[in-house]
Amino acid sequence: MPQPKYRKIAVLGYRSVGKSSLTIQFVEGQFVDAYDPTIENTFNKMVSMNGQDFNLQLDEYSIFPQSHSMDIHGYVLVYSVTSMKSFEVVQVLHDKLLDMVGKIQVPTVLVGNKKDLHMERVIKPEEGKKLADSWGAAFMESSAKENQTAVEVFKRIILEMEKADGNAPSEEKKCCVM
Ligand SMILES: Nc1nc2c(ncn2[C@@H]2O[C@H](COP(=O)(O)OP(=O)(O)OP(=O)(O)O)[C@@H](O)[C@H]2O)c(=O)[nH]1
């Protein structure tokens, strides 16, 4: 068994889009209904994907992570499908982070969260997909109420980081959360 790979992932987005909820759903398997504003928070989780263990550090930020940016391996950029403002903010964040890392592409998953709130939706899936395509990033919609979509988000960013390392998958990878 190869050594676990340590991977640091930044979860970024406008306030109240569900960064904490998605991360907690992935790490602890539960949905927290209360809103507890976070400025910065860190979680750790071991995940196994296709025979490789990943020791994930998940850093959630509501402000831009100026000083920590250099050692981040992948970005989960979150907006809420119910908030136009959050969709605008995620574009600003993406521009800023490319400027900061000085690359034209970094492993990124764009996530449209709160997809369960059908009546309040203002951003269509196609709009999110189009934006992610323009970045060369992956796109997903999620609901932090469903464990499966939260797991998919983090499975996807692992895949994007592996691709950036030249480890493109030959087939659909299996992911199991430990
Ligand atoms: N219906 C629904 N509510 C959600 C979802 N994700 C988060 N929420 C709710 O939205 C509110 C904000 O969620 P948080 O996870 O605290 O959002 P955040 O992005 O971490 O917020 P900040 O800490 O301010 O940056 C909470 O009341 C959550 O319960 C979702 O997918 N669906």
TrEMBL record:
Keyword set includes Cell membrane: yes
Free-text function comment from the UniProt entry: Small GTPase that acts as an allosteric activator of the canonical mTORC1 complex, an evolutionarily conserved central nutrient sensor that stimulates anabolic reactions and macromolecule biosynthesis to promote cellular biomass generation and growth.
GO BP, one annotated term: signal transduction
Keyword Hydrolase: yes
Protein name, per record: GTP-binding protein Rheb
Membrane topology per record: Lipid-anchor
Residues spanning the signal sequence: none
Keyword terms: Cell membrane, GTP-binding, Hydrolase, Lipoprotein, Magnesium, Membrane, Metal-binding, Methylation, Nucleotide-binding, Prenylation
CDD domains, alphabetized: RheB
Protein origin, superkingdom: Eukaryota
Pfam families associated with the record: Ras
Catalytic activity: GTP + H2O = GDP + phosphate + H(+)
Species of the source: Pangasianodon hypophthalmus (Striped catfish)
Subcellular location: Cell membrane; Endoplasmic reticulum membrane; Golgi apparatus membrane; Lysosome membrane
Protein family (similarity comment): Belongs to the small GTPase superfamily. Rheb family.
A GO term from the CC aspect: lysosomal membrane
SUBUNIT field: Associates with the mTORC1 complex (MTOR, MLST8 and RPTOR) in a guanyl nucleotide-independent manner. Interacts with TSC2. Interacts with MCRS1; the interaction maintains RHEB at the lysosome in its active GTP-bound form and prevents its interaction with the mTORC1 complex inhibitor TSC2, ensuring activation of the mTORC1 complex by RHEB. Interacts (when prenylated) with PDE6D; this promotes release from membranes.
SMART domains the UniProt entry points to: RAB, RAS, RHO
One GO MF term: metal ion binding
